[in-house]
């Protein structure tokens, strides 16, 4: 009778300790830069929490909220989760206990907390002009040499 179509935006609120997660895009390029065919591309094992359930109740009825919140980046197991389609988007439901861990957000890692002038001023005071022989470990020593080499190269330019 009525030929009207209403565009409905479906939302999903997870129940219990479930998390609604958006998987990261498939890896289509290897670390060395080789492009992979679409059938060989790996599913990413990371994702972003979109929505969080209220948590679980213990035998006494006390609610224990999940430790993760919307926006957290998480490390996912290779298998598991329930695929859910909301509109055109594929999301996944996981129990909190199935999540392997959380990861740092790349935006936080790439955002400088000081200006280049402040950084150089601090490094001028902290780094010696000549390499220092250190005792702790070869890894620490080579890292220090490399840091000094890069710093002095950038500083000269």
Automatic annotation (TrEMBL):
Signal peptide: none annotated. One of its GO terms (cellular component) is mitochondrion. Keywords: Chaperone. The keyword Metal-binding does not apply. The keyword Nucleotide-binding does not apply. Gene3D superfamilies: GroES chaperonin. Belongs to the GroES chaperonin family. HAMAP family: CH10. This is Chaperonin 10.
